[in-house]
Amino acid sequence: MLAGDLYAFQGLLSDDEAATVQRVRDFLEAEVVPIANDYWARAEFPSQLVKRFAGLELAGRERSSLLNGWLALEMARADASMATFYGVHAGLAMGSIQTCGSPEQRERWLPAMAAFDQIGAFALTEPTGGSDVAAGLRTTARREGDTWVLDGQKRWIGNATFADLVVVWARDVEDNQVKGFVVPGDAPGFTATKIENKIALRIVQNADLTLTGVRVPETDRLQNANSFKDTAKILRQTRSGVAWEAVGVMLAAYEIALKYAGEREQFGRPIAKFQLVQDLLVRMVGNVTGALGMCVRLAQLQDAGQYRDEHSALAKAYCTTRMREVVGWARELLAGNGIVLDYDIGRFVADAEALYSYEGTREINTLIVGRAVTGHSAFV
Which positions fall inside the Acyl-CoA dehydrogenase/oxidase C-terminal domain (predicted)? Predict the structure, then answer.
């Protein structure tokens, strides 16, 4: 069990599920953790690990929501950037095709993506459209016979600099509805420019996209994506994954702080013996326990078919807020050592800021929950 799993939630996994978690944990600790700081500092992606991820045989497999969540936790506990890479590919991109594609489209794309032979990206956010993207999407799709012509810009698109397939969401100029298109990364008129100077998720290769007269055949339009309601189905599925990732970041920060407190000596004894240090550690593990309990219950609701938008929205808002507190307390406990990569916590402090914002800000998720509990929408 993990040091931060004080209530032993991992014990809810079956023996086979626990073995899968351990296999993934061993891989991450051997392959990702030792190189994360180096690649983070250089803002480069460890492409040599892509096929190693394929060897884990995770993408495209049917699993319980609890196991899916725990795997997201484990990846973020090792490195939030690699968790994001996996989430974009296996969650957003593959999830879009699985949910909104036809049987033929699923058969055409998903096996290669599950084998990591083709990497996916998900292009929804735009330079001027984030929280208001449902109504403010400006990328257009114009039909010409059996071909669609896409024009527009996208921003913050993870994996896009090296993706083989990009799920692009665009507004049909004919009916004003949002539709999904699978665009090859080397399509004429499609360019991806890496976003530089990030202070968070530096390993993730986010890009600005420009689509100028990109021609996509009707066969590459996701056949069951006919309005933003279909896009929202994907976001609802993946938003819960971000809550689990937030718990993973919290666990990592707590474990780093706990280990450091036992080793760091001041005034002739380990700082773990000081009351104020114990207070920080208890606050951290309290946040971890509360957030993990929420995620476990969320997974149970998903598997029972009782999962609603407000459930994932509350989990994302709550867990990422508690995560921010935990990484801050861990940095505080490490004092000056907390701001250098040598002690790992600095990377988690920075990356937490990105998790706090993506997949819906706290404010937007708050309004989703507020609408559910009051029956009144406060969206402008």
Answer: 232-373
Residues 168 and 249 in one domain: no
Please state, for a pLDDT cut of 90, what percent of the chain lies above it.
92
Which positions ≥6 away from 220 have C-beta within 8 Å? Answer: 105, 181, 182, 183
Side-chain half-sphere of 163: how many Cα atoms within 13 Å?
Answer: 36
Which range marks the domain in which residue 239 is found? 229-374
- Please give the Cα distance from 84 to 354 (Å, whole number): 10
Q: For residue 87, what is the DSSP state?
A: I
Burial (CB count within 10 angstroms: exposed 0-12, middle 13-18, buried 19+), residue 206:
buried
CATH of the domain at 138: 2.40.110.10
Judged against a pLDDT cut of 80, whether residue 295 lies above it is answered with: yes
Sequence-separated (6 or more) residues with CB below 8 Å from residue 120: 88, 89, 92, 93, 94, 97, 113, 159, 163, 164, 165, 166, 167
Same domain as 308, residue 180? no
Tell me the average pLDDT across 61-85.
96
Cα–Cα separations (whole angstroms), residue 86 to 62, 122, 194, 314, 339 = 16, 12, 18, 23, 27
Q: Does residue 379 have a pLDDT over 90? A: no
Domain identity same for 258 and 358: yes
Distances (CA, A) of 169 to 14, 131, 148, 298, 308: 38, 15, 12, 28, 23
- Residue 197 pLDDT greater than 80, yes or no: yes
Largest CA distance in the chain: 79
Same-domain status, 257 and 136? no
Number of structural domains found in the chain? 3
pTM of the model: 0.94
Phi/psi class of residue 253: alpha, beta or left (left: φ > 0; alpha: ψ in -120 to 50)? alpha
Q: Does 17 lie in the same domain as 29?
A: yes
Residue pointed to by tokens 């049917």: 62
Give bridge partners of residue 192 from the DSSP assignment. 209
| 342, pLDDT greater than 80 | yes
268 and 368 in a single domain? The answer is: yes
**Residue 205: other Cβ atoms inside 10 A:** 23
What CATH number is attached to the domain comprising 65?
1.10.540.10
Residue 380: what pLDDT? Answer: 75
